[in-house]
Design a protein that fits this description.
Elements: H1 2-7, H2 9-20, H3 37-52, E1 56-60, E2 64-69, E3 77-82, E4 100-102, E5 105-107, H4 115-130, E6 139-144, H5 152-160, E7 166-168, E8 197-202, E9 208-209, E10 212-218, H6 229-235, E11 244-251, E12 254-261, E13 264-265, E14 274-278, E15 283-287, E16 290-294
Parallel strand pairs: 3-6, 3-7
Antiparallel strand pairs: 1-2, 2-6, 4-5, 8-10, 9-13, 10-12, 11-12, 14-15, 15-16
Helix pairs in contact: 2-4
C-alpha cells in the first residue's frame, strides 16, 4: 500500500489542490445548487475526479454524491467525507484557496477538513479496483456538501437512499471516535445594564473558535497615542502573551479594542480558547492567558 501511495503521490496532491481551489463555503441556494454555488462546484469536481479514477459516480440532486465500486446494492459499506468548508477567517499570509507545500505539510483551506481525506477515499477505491481485490460488499465513498452548516446532505441521503451497513468518516483523529460533540446555537442576554458598552462581536462560524474579537465602548479616558504603548498596557493591567495580539484605538468618543489569536475547528476548542465576557463590575476580554481590564 505504501508503494502504491508513493507512486500516486503527485496525482493525489494535484487532485486535493483542485478541490482546495474552490471556495465551497455555503452560499445562497440556487437552482441545482441547494447549498450555494461553491459547494455545488466542489461536489461536481469531486465526482469528476472519481470518474477520472475509473469509478462510478452518482450525483444525489446536488446535495451529496458518491463514488462506488463493486456494483449497486442496498447492502454496502461506505466512507463519508465532505467538500464544503468554513469561512477562511483572517490571518492568512497567502491565498487560502491556492494549495502549497511547506516543510512536509500541505496548506490551504480544507486540506484536512475535509477535502484531503475525500481525495484519499477516492484513491482507496482506486487501489481496490486496480488490484482487483474481491469485495464481499460494494463500497461507496460519500461526498457531502453541507457538513459544516447543518448536515442537510446526510439528512437527504438517509431519506432517499438505504443506509450503509457500516460507515466511517476520516474526519477525525486516528484510530477511532464513536461520537461527536454537538453545537449549541444560543443567545446570551445580560440582565444588568452594560454601561458604556456599544458592541461586542467575534467569530465567523458557529463551529469554529474565533480568531478575532472586537469590543466597542464609549471612551471614558483619553488615550494619547504619543505615549509609550507598553506603559499604557501596564497601567491598565493588560498582559501581552505570544498567543495573541491586542490593538487599541480611539475614534471620537469611542474606544475600539481588538484581540487577534489563532482559530481552530470547534472539535478542539479546548486547545484554542478565545472568549469575550463583559461584566457590570469590570470589563474583561480574555484570550487564553491574555487578560484585559478596562476602566
Amino acid at each position: 500500500i505504501d508503494k502504491y501511495v508513493e507512486s500516486n503521490r503527485g496525482a493525489i496532491l494535484r487532485d486535493i489542490a483542485r478541490l482546495v481551489a474552490i471556495n465551497s463555503v455555503e452560499g445562497e441556494a440556487e437552482p441545482n445548487a441547494p447549498f450555494g454555488r461553491g459547494p455545488r462546484e466542489a461536489l461536481d469536481k469531486g465526482l469528476e475526479i472519481a470518474r477520472e479514477l475509473g469509478l462510478d459516480a452518482v450525483d444525489c440532486d446536488g446535495k451529496i454524491g458518491y463514488a462506488c465500486l463493486g456494483g449497486d446494492s442496498d447492502r454496502y459499506l461506505a466512507t463519508i467525507t465532505h467538500l464544503d468548508v468554513v469561512p477562511v477567517g483572517e490571518g492568512w499570509t497567502q491565498d487560502p484557496f491556492t494549495m502549497r507545500e511547506r516543510e512536509g505539510y500541505i496548506i490551504g483551506r480544507g486540506v484536512m477538513d475535509d477535502k484531503g481525506p475525500s481525495v484519499l477515499c477516492l484513491y482507496a477505491l482506486k487501489y481496490l479496483k486496480d488490484k482487483g481485490i474481491a469485495l464481499r460488499y460494494p463500497v461507496r465513498a460519500l461526498l457531502g456538501a453541507n457538513e459544516e452548516t447543518g448536515m442537510k446532505d446526510v439528512e437527504y441521503y438517509l431519506a432517499n437512499y438505504p443506509a450503509p451497513l457500516f460507515c466511517f468518516s476520516p474526519d477525525a483523529n486516528f484510530p477511532l471516535c464513536n461520537g461527536e460533540k454537538g453545537i449549541y446555537h444560543g443567545r446570551m442576554i445580560s440582565k444588568l445594564p452594560m454601561v458604556n458598552v456599544v458592541d461586542i462581536k467575534g467569530g465567523f462560524a458557529a463551529n469554529a473558535v474565533p480568531d478575532k474579537a472586537e469590543y466597542f465602548q464609549i471612551a471614558i479616558f483619553v488615550f494619547d497615542r504619543r505615549k509609550n504603548f507598553h506603559i499604557f498596557l501596564r497601567y491598565h493591567s493588560i498582559v501581552e502573551t505570544s498567543t495573541g495580539s491586542l490593538f487599541i484605538s480611539t475614534l471620537s468618543t469611542l474606544l475600539f479594542l481588538t484581540v487577534i489569536t489563532l482559530s481552530a475547528i470547534g472539535a478542539i476548542a479546548e486547545l484554542w480558547v478565545m472568549t469575550i465576557t463583559v461584566t457590570p463590575s469590570f470589563r474583561q476580554v480574555s484570550c487564553k492567558s491574555l487578560r484585559i481590564f478596562l476602566p
